[in-house]
Amino acid sequence: MRLLKEPLFHFFLIGAAIFIWFHIVSPESEAAVDSERIEITEQDVTLLSEQFEARWKRPPNTAELQALVDASIREEVLVREAKKLGLDRGDTVIRSRLSQKMGFLTEAIAASVVPEDEVLEAFRQQNLDQYTTPHKIAFTQVFLGENPADGEVERALEALRAQQEPADLSRSTLLPASMPLSATRVVDSVYGNGFSDGLTTLAKGEWAGPVLSGYGVHLVKVLEIEPSKNPPLEDIHEVVLRDWLRATSEDLAQAQYETLAQGYEIIVPDFAELSE
């Protein structure tokens, strides 16, 4: 009974039904010689190489050439399978469009599968970093310059704690006097790498310091702190579902291609000989 709840089982059932339906409504396959044979000739490789060089202003290396051939084979497999299903009927767009149709079909099948929450929870656990909210902090600061004079830090702290206006004590700077609730990476992008580290140990609502930034010495009052957290599935259900569908669609598209490609004899030239 558990098998009936598996999303992939649903995918294969729906996929089989759609492919069978297309075979029923599609016209009889066109007669072709060696219809199950795909051969990449040396001329094909030369053309792929020339197209690459025309675009990138240099010839492809062996790995890039292999990738071009693999992509060409993939396109040919999907185009032929698309034609078998009649997806090219009445359609005059280029071959890549037929390949895209096969991809769209797979995506549609994947999108029709509704996973159980336990499947989404397992996916969330596997990608916790992706859903972890950043540590956030809000604060106001007084800039005392790169090298404040002896005793200046202590005097400024006393004045701030005595309710003196921060603007009266801060030196001229283009740095913002305060930051709203922001991720620590945003804070560091403004004040310099590592500045937020000096804020995490400060008590909330009290002037403290000195805290060093990439620009000099600061006195800081932390106004609000929002710790990093992993929200539960119910709070981000739609986001996790969207990501699961995208990942599943990509996996299924690759699995579909590999299965279809097994039905062909694929011949490519010897790259070692071509490079000599």
Q: Treating each run of at least 4 consecutive H or I residues as one helix, how many helices? A: 11
- What string, H for helix and E for strand, traces the elements in order? HEHHHHHEHHEHEEHEH
Helix content: 40-55%
End-to-end separation = 59 Å
Shape: elongated
Question: What is the number of beta strands?
Answer: 6
Cα radius of gyration in angstroms: 31 Å
Spans of at least 5 consecutive residues whose pLDDT stays below 50 are: 27-33
Word description of this protein:
With 276 residues, this protein is α+β, with helices and mostly antiparallel strands. A hairpin with a 4-residue loop joins β4 and β5. About 3% of the residues have low confidence.
Could you give a short description of this structure?
The protein has 276 residues and is an alpha+beta fold. The protein is 51% helix and 13% strand.
Keywords:
4-stranded antiparallel β-sheet, alpha+beta, 276 residues, 51% helix
Please specify the SSE layout and strand pairing:
Elements (H helix, E strand, L loop, with lengths): L6 H19 L11 E3 L2 H15 L5 H23 L10 H17 L5 H10 L1 H4 L4 E8 L8 H10 L4 H4 L8 E6 H8 L15 E6 L4 E10 L10 H25 L3 E3 L3 H5 L1
Helix pairs in contact: 3-4, 4-10, 5-10
